Amino acid sequence: MNSRDPNAHRATPHSKRGATPITLGTTPPDKRDTTPPVALGATPPSKRGATPPVQGATSRAARSTPPAGNPRVTPAPPTPTIRDATSPTGRNVTSYHAPLAWIGDAVAEDVLIEVIDGRFASVTPGVARPPANAQRLPGLAMPGLANAHSHAFHRALRGQAEQGHGTFWTWRQQMYEVAAQLNPDSYFALARAVYAEMALAGVTCVGEFHYLHHDADGQRYGEPNAMGLALLAAAQEVGIRITLLDTLYLTSSVEGAPLEGPQRRFGDGDVDGWSARVADLRADVHAKIGAALHSVRAVPAEQIAAFASRVEGTPTHVHLSEQRAENEACRRVHGCSPTALLADRGLLGPWVTAVHATHLDDTDRGELGDSNTAVCFCPTTERDLADGLGPARPLFDAGSPLCLGSDSHAVIDLFEEARTLELHERLRTERRGNFAADELVDAATVRGHAALGWNDAGRIAVGSRADLVCVALDTPRTAGCSPDAIVFAAGAPDIRLVIADGQVIVRDGEHVTIGDVGDALRRAIWPVSTSRAPDAGARATRVIPALDNEVTTEEIEPGSGERRSGERGPRKRRPKSGGSAPGEPTRAVKP
Fold first, then answer.
1. Which terminus of the chain is more solvent-facing, meaning fewer CB atoms within 10 Å of its CB: N or C?
2. CATH number at residue 483
3. Closest Cα to residue 539, out of 152, 186, 184, 157?
């Protein structure tokens, strides 16, 4: 906490559902030192770049030649049920054997992995004959992936906002239409389905850039953080970690125009109002409470400094220079670039992540790199919205750690984000080979976790959180691929097993608790789809775990033929010639 305001953002010490109170303004996370804490009396692992050779691992120079006897294309059997043993200390030990595993910046063979209390207790390459209780991991075992930038509700726009002409600004209007329809219950259902899709893609931690705070009239709910709590509950139910980046959003333009229409749902009046609301947010062990400044468009310059003084040390994200129009307006109003404005107001540093950073000059890149400010690229969204190509390698070389996010969720696939970081840089520079494969994997794993405040995740190393993502090496996409180049070939459909904090959440490509994720998405998206009438659907009531109360929302049951709440008599069938509703399976018509 900054000494000028020692108690401005301290959470009120009250209990709610057994959660631990969170205080913004703790020790700044060092994004450039992501070495996980050591547990169980092990020797601390060295920092990347000084990592000693690991038995059974191949160096970067040698990885282009597959090791002898490499089983990478052997079809893996269905993932077995995980069995536990007991350690001499009485704690349960879960043992895995990975024919191939990504250890540090190299691929190791025959790795015996032991997990105790959700953390890696031992990681031993070169174990050709594992113990009988060790469970064989399919394909290539990788660290858990981190999706560092998400707007969960944007997922409702996939396949509905891509056609036709327009710009980022016209797309934004469609996004506002979705935002206008959500409430805590429907937001929970949508986020739950979106986070489940992320889990299928190997994501074990998400950074949710959350600014949809209030009701449709811009008034606070009875529980002021109802929308944020719905997101926390959704991640918990799916089994992934979340950093809720609660966002300050006050104005609609750099000039300070007031919020209007659906934007009124985003605003807290001023930084004091935002601070007071966020102070009551509480997180369980699967979550952290972070902060975000939406952009220089959304927060007046004098409020940026006050915000920075209250969040120093807290994982803090900010949209930066995504659009040229934002840069031009900032220079017109403030006489400087958005990066320079943030630097002048104290909002750059190792706890800050700049999202997009697309349109920068050399001075901007120097400011970000010199301050160790991380940068989150969202390549699939940036290309979908025609944002432009950001200077990824120059930022990395200047000193900014890079991480990745799926942002608007036009695609949810961290492998696609990682390789597109390199492919976009090829388009920008007209040169291949800007990033090595291990640098791309770092961006999708350890750097993303660090940007979200989870410095003990993103590596298969002793003491780290036990996250594992197993990628099949025998699919049409990955067959014949060298394991150390998997980032250039694999996609979300190739993931067979996902373990988060020691718990299996995806087995054989299926989510173990959500079940049919596609159906969950269909049911969650249909009520808020911009292509349906707002009053269509059936009423349903459920309990959101985080809110501990019943709420009623609209949801559609395509093809169910059930009555709406309050309807009397049999529901009329749709005429056979009427066709199906958007998103509804086509039904055969009997002659």
1. C
2. 2.30.40.10
3. 186
**What b/e readout covers 156-167, taking b as 16+ CB neighbours within 10 angstroms?**
bbbeebeeeeee
Query: Is 521:546 a contact under the CB 8 Å cutoff?
Result: no
Q: Is 251 within the bounds of a domain?
A: no
Q: What CA–CA distance (Å, rounded) separates 508 from 69?
A: 25
Q: Is residue 361 assigned to a domain?
A: no
Do the Cβ atoms of 181 and 220 come closer than 8 Å? no
Q: Give the pair of three-digit tokens for residue 513.
A: 């608790």
Distance from C-alpha of 557 to C-alpha of 565, rounded to nearest angstrom: 13
CA pair distance 13, 591, nearest whole angstrom: 67
pLDDT by residue (tens digit) across 492-539? 999 999 999 999 999 999 999 999 999 999 999 988 876 553 443 333
Residue 549 tokens read as: 């109360």
Hey, which residues are catalytic here?
356, 407
For residue 410, what are its two tokens? Answer: 């036009």
CB atoms within 10 A of CB 121: 21
**Overall number of domains in the chain:** 1
Q: How many helices (H) and strands (E) does the chain have?
A: 14, 22
Fill in the amino acid letter for 82. I
Q: Give 547's contacts (C-beta < 8 A, 6+ positions apart).
A: 184, 223, 226, 229, 230, 233
Q: How far apart are CA 42 and CA 40, in angstroms?
A: 6
The domain in which residue 501 lies consists of 31-44+72-140+459-515
- For residue 256, is it within any domain? no
If 0-12 CB within 10 Å is exposed, 13-18 middle and 19+ buried, where does residue 465 land?
Answer: buried
Report pLDDT digits (tens) over 36-88: 333 322 333 333 333 333 333 333 333 333 333 333 233 434 444 444 555 55
Give dist(CA 423, CA 168) in Å, integer: 22
| Predicted TM-score (pTM) above 0.90 | no
What's the burial of 327, exposed, middle or buried (CB within 10 Å: 0-12/13-18/19+)?
buried
The DSSP secondary structure of 245-273, one letter per residue, reads EEEE--BSSTT-PBP-GGGGGT--SSHHH
346 lies in some domain: no
Region of 261 (left: φ > 0; alpha: ψ -120 to 50; beta: rest) is: left
